Amino acid sequence: MSKPKVLIIGSGGVGAISALSLTTTNKSEVTLVVRSDYDLIDKQGFSINSCTYGELKNWKPHHIARSVKDAQTQYGPFDYILLTTKNIPDGPITCEEIIQPAIKTGNEVIILLQNGLGIENPMVEAFPGHIVLSGVSLIGSTYIDGHVRNPGRDHVFLGDFKPESERLPGSAEKIEEFISIYQTPDNKNTIVLDTNVQKRRWEKLIYNSVFNVISALVELDNCRTQMTVQNDELIRPAMYEVIAIAKSEGIECDESLVDKYIHIGDGLFYVPSMGIDAHKGQLIELETILGNPMRIAKKNNVSTPILSTLYPLLKLVQFRLKEKRGMFTIDKNDFQGNSDVYPKVFAEKYGKH
Amino acid sequence: MSKPKVLIIGSGGVGAISALSLTTTNKSEVTLVVRSDYDLIDKQGFSINSCTYGELKNWKPHHIARSVKDAQTQYGPFDYILLTTKNIPDGPITCEEIIQPAIKTGNEVIILLQNGLGIENPMVEAFPGHIVLSGVSLIGSTYIDGHVRNPGRDHVFLGDFKPESERLPGSAEKIEEFISIYQTPDNKNTIVLDTNVQKRRWEKLIYNSVFNVISALVELDNCRTQMTVQNDELIRPAMYEVIAIAKSEGIECDESLVDKYIHIGDGLFYVPSMGIDAHKGQLIELETILGNPMRIAKKNNVSTPILSTLYPLLKLVQFRLKEKRGMFTIDKNDFQGNSDVYPKVFAEKYGKH
């Protein structure tokens, strides 16, 4: 039997190391889509500095492609589509639109190795019949201009996000197969089955919905934030709000994670990815990190005084980023009447943004 | 009897028009302290475009001075010290330190024509025995590089902020005198006695503690904010929190101001001053606009879920601005341990900031 074919979409810190893991085990044929930096990577490959894989120069997976469409034409069809891009449903292109050109046989297994909540259902709705798996990565890895800095070991939790009774046939076997082609024999990485991957997502949100969100607003690293505002004044109670929302869905997060996450960056002066994105003028993963949890809080009547203030503020930041990126151009004439109707006017005249 | 001498400290939009009002009536001898732009104003005066005073070129009051000390030496002592600077008690110099060089006879009347709450007591403590008056300006006026744009009529409410029983002798007469030298005969401006000027301050905070604060965080004009976030989602409930804090102090604000302020900028795409300051890298009037109200809310156990989230976020913005202005330089070695103690370490090693 021939090796399974894996398409990885997203060549940032997570995607590059996933490609490296899969290429290292060599139990699959790996195609990596490299969009903006295709020419750079095509010419000189990745330069990688990894805590587990060491120093690599001019490294490439089996194949790279400039677009999902090119990948499909040249190296498809694929058995697995591993999505490691940011998930910004309010951005110029949704994740469903991104993978569309790679859907060919109807048997592609879609793996969402992305942050945030509520990302699986839109994919299931767009591609019914496909097995959609949910992955949570705990890696520390950043990509800049061809260079991957990977100080935190690649650690993936993989599972079917649906309750057992609703899972498609073959789901368990596909998880098992993907784990077997991804896990390196010498434990350079770890990939394990997670039977409750939604809980894992909520637990990661305890960090992301608080530290990421605050950094996008104030553009400080976590240590500077923590020297200005007592952990108990803002960060800790906000984290407990995330736990309360999860609980309203029947998910009991490990509360010891609050202290763990509060102190995980002590002394490191680390800027969360959302803070970096906002600073660089990139759109932020607002709706999957904060918007979807807030909609659940509202549905279940959970009191979230801090997050309910952070969310509209972050919507304003996202608005500013979108406008600066030219996603819309405000005509002041459209906003001369009563400001109560501005959101309606905006939605009608400027589309989904 | 010779004319009273007035020293105006702060030559921004408010101070320049105050100087113009006083010089126009010509019932006092006016000295204006112009700090950073002294050479410019000394050479060519102010260029003023005013809704009531019209177009003026090369305009100057009776005297200008480069510093409070120079003003005192050359044109003092003064009967009135009118302070129109920003009030930033956590900045490099407090308002008490600013006016210190102008205190000579012990009879100077100090008038605080500034925004915010809790600004009078520090002045009374620094200069006991001096009459301290409190002024609220409703002017629309901005100063940039020698040019004053004054689209909103000069309207001042002036009063003694203390309860009647605690007022110093002569306070009422001084208010009356200042009004008489400030009010133009042809009603180009309006200055009136306000017997409850604290209420007026709280009412102005309904706007400033919300719109100013949000703009400093997200750097958008109010209309853009209002097209992204429903007025009822953030702005209106935040304004009601200000009203609730005032009420806990026995001050009943006019609640119709909420709607008035929400719609006062409809169609104008106006950026509040705090948003402009933050954008320009200037320190913001955080403690007088939001910090002091929050301390009252805490003392009186008022529930302020939105403002209690905004306040720490704004402290982070102020921190960022202070660091960028070189008010301190963080040594990362000081912040390597448990982040719970970072605020204490910061306070001890980096002083009051």
UniProtKB/TrEMBL annotation, chains A, B:
Q: Which GO terms describe its biological process?
A: pantothenate biosynthetic process
Its lineage opens with:
Eukaryota, Fungi, Dikarya, Ascomycota, Saccharomycotina
- Name the chain's protein: 2-dehydropantoate 2-reductase
Domain (Ketopantoate reductase N-terminal) spans 6-162
Source superkingdom: Eukaryota
Recorded hits in NCBIfam families, A to Z, give: apbA_panE
**From the UniProt record, which GO molecular function terms apply?**
2-dehydropantoate 2-reductase activity
Give the family per the record. Belongs to the ketopantoate reductase family.
Annotated ranges, domain Ketopantoate reductase C-terminal? 196-317
Question: What are the entry keywords?
Answer: NADP, Oxidoreductase
Q: Which GO terms describe its cellular component?
A: cytoplasm
What PANTHER family is this protein classified in? 2-DEHYDROPANTOATE 2-REDUCTASE-RELATED, PROBABLE 2-DEHYDROPANTOATE 2-REDUCTASE
Offer one Pfam family short name for this entry: ApbA_C
Q: Does the keyword Oxidoreductase apply?
A: yes
